[in-house]
Design a protein that fits this description.
By secondary structure, the chain is mainly α. It has helices at residues 3-12, 16-33, 39-49, 56-71. Helix 2 runs antiparallel to helix 3 (39-49) and helix 3 (39-49) packs antiparallel against helix 4 (56-71). It starts with a helix and ends in a 6-residue tail after the last helix.
Length: 77
């Protein structure tokens, strides 16, 4: 997937809001395709964004990441 690479590039340049917006689009693709092998990369982005969670776009990404992670978590037996 390319969106997490673009988001990481935005983070490296200090553009946290843009990183969150691009990564949020990537999460939508993960949910639609159920291709969860990319979730760890999006988790890395979430960790990097966490200190700036007061910004609305970043908070939206963090909430969407948490929801996506719960959606694909193994169910207890």
């Amino acid at each position: 997937m390319i969106r997490e690479i673009i988001a990481a590039a935005h983070l490296a340049r200090g553009s946290a809001v843009e990183a969150a917006q691009v990564a949020q689009g990537g999460l939508a693709i993960v949910r639609e395709t159920e291709f969860t092998m990319w979730l760890p990369k999006f988790e890395d982005i979430a960790r990097a964004l966490f200190p700036r969670q007061r910004q609305p776009a970043i908070r939206a990404y963090l909430e969407e990441f948490a929801m996506t992670k719960r959606q694909f978590a193994p169910s207890p037996r």
